[in-house]
Amino acid sequence: MKQIYNFLNKVLLRNKFEWSSYFLTMPKIVITISILIFVLLGTRANAQNQNQNQSKESIAVINIGAEGLEIKMALMTSLVTLELERIGVYEVIDKYDVANHMKKNKIPLDESYGKTDLIRIGKLLKVDKVLSGSAEKFGSKIIVVLRLVDVENGKIEKVDVMEYLDQEEDIQIMIRISLHNIFNIENDDNTVEMLSNINLPLANTKNKVNLSGPRFGMTTTLGAVGQRLQAPKDEGGYNMFPVSSVFGYQFEKQYIAAGEFQALFEIIPALNALESGYIIPSLSIINGFRFNKLGFEFGIGPVFRIAQMAEGYYDASGNWTLRSEVPDPPADTEFIYQVDNRGSYRLNTGLIIAAGYTFKSGHINFPINIYVSPRKDGTTVGLIFGFNVARSKKKVR
User: Fold this and answer.
1) Domain residue spans in the chain?
2) Closest Cα partner for 351 from 393, 387, 303, 317?
3) What residues are paired with 64 via a beta bridge?
4) Does residue 41 register a pLDDT over 70?
5) Confidence bin at 393 (pLDDT 50/70/90)
6) Given 3.40.50.10610, 2.40.30.170, 3.40.50.150, 3.40.50.1980, which CATH number is that of 58-195?
């Protein structure tokens, strides 16, 4: 600015009484002033940049390993270097300079380095910090580990370990999140939540109980259906006992094990009423919830039965009459399908609600369940029990 002032003062004094000449030289003055301003601003900006670069600590990225991934170590190291330069916290040493120094000092590029080696390399490169680490696929997740080493103090300054979902196509975002963690830069919570691996609860022999095994019990049906089952055969009934037997087998498939809680599917095929000379098949598919420590469980699901059904109606006295037996029934007669040994086989569906408790004796489990299958024309209730031997956990190969 001093140069501009002196120049203007000189021009104005020289042209003090030559106003016509002054106006002719005015464009030259404006151009000269503009040039001087740009020169001064550029000089100041360069000085600020040099001071800023001098104030930044230097850092070198060394050997970012990649295990079980399609991306290799060299590319992973370049990716970390790129993201580190984008952050702008340190003056990042160019990867080619790093490679040349390591080659010059006969240090292999494909070796893993401990803290001592990283500090030695950092001193050879004359940097303040060294960043190393790895990205490794483990099962259904990718584990990213980054270590920031302080070369001058000879210690690991910070370590960040993150578990991400196995989505290698997003590896660059994972590296960015981990670098932000190292340098205390805030991450987008939604991005972190979408990529972070959700640890599933552990499942072992203590919190996983399998009660698959044979089932035995008894059942009774109330209401109109129960009356039809106990009715004489010549009236279309089955002349069954009020209480019928149940023989089946329970298959289980667990899909959640969280602490002492289990959620599972239970499939129970069964045969009913064998003592009455009949075979009435049923299939129950139950979504069960089990509390292993307490021993309690409950479940709900559909039940399917096959039975002989016939169309008919109940007369004013409450007697069951087949539609085919009365050619001209009353006009307001309501026809329904009901259990009848004179009818054809049909598939019946219903809802089953069950609750139970498991007694344990050594390695033997004794589950006892009560259940109800509500229906408007006849609710079924039953008691069923079973046993099984606790199985040892299979060895994972």
Assistant:
1) 2-55, 58-195, 213-389
2) 303
3) 133
4) no
5) very low
6) 3.40.50.10610
> Quick check: 23 pLDDT over 80?
no
User: Beta strand 320-322 with 336-339: parallel, antiparallel or unpaired?
Assistant: unpaired
Over the chain, what is the mean pLDDT? 83
Rg (CA), the chain: 42
Distance of CA 208 to the CA centre of its chain: 20
Please give the Cα distance from 224 to 55 (Å, whole number). 92
| Token pair in block for residue 160 | 């960040």
- CA-closest candidate to residue 363, choices 388, 330, 343: 388
Q: Is 43 left (phi over 0), alpha (psi -120 to 50) or beta?
A: alpha
Largest separation between any pair of C-alpha atoms in the chain: 141
State pLDDT tens for residues 60-102.
Answer: 998 898 999 998 888 999 999 999 999 988 999 888 888 888 7
Least confident of 42-56, 109-123, 349-363: 42-56
The model's pTM: 0.51
- Please tell me the predicted confidence (pLDDT) of residue 46: 57
Neighbours of 318 (CB within 10 A): 8
CB atoms within 10 A of CB 325: 9
Cα(96)–Cα(101) distance, integer angstroms: 9
> Residue 157 corresponds to which tokens in the numbers above?
């300054």
For the domain made up of 213-389, the CATH class stated in words is: mainly beta
146 pLDDT above the threshold of 70: yes
Count the alpha carbons within 13 Å of 304 in the hemisphere toward its beta carbon.
8
Which of helix, strand or coil describes residue 39?
A: helix
DSSP 295-353: TEEEEEEEEEEEEEEEEEEE-TTS-EEEGGG-SS--TT---EEEE-TTSEEEEEEEEEE
Sequence-ordered list of residues with C-beta below 8 angstroms from that of 253, at least 6 positions apart, any chain? 264, 265, 267
